Amino acid sequence: MISVLLLAAGEPWESPAMADLEAHPGVVVLKRCVDVDDLLAAVATGQSDVAVVSLDAPGLDPASVALLRRHACAPSP
Q1: Cβ(54)–Cβ(11) under 8 Å?
Q2: For the chain, how many structural domains are there in total?
Q3: pTM: predicted TM-score of the whole model, two decimal places
């Protein structure tokens, strides 16, 4: 099972991405995060494998990406 966090920051691709993720067996979307702080709090639980993020999300910076990686959550734009 692959656990995914989604931070789309209002991007138009959010709904199609959510539908695509939910259509794949073996993938579960744990949370649709509202902002980077929410994303980082969710990743701190250690339950996610991948974070699908908008590169335009306010507050997304190298430090937040490093934190995702420290929690073994691969960021994916």
Answers
A1: yes
A2: 1
A3: 0.88
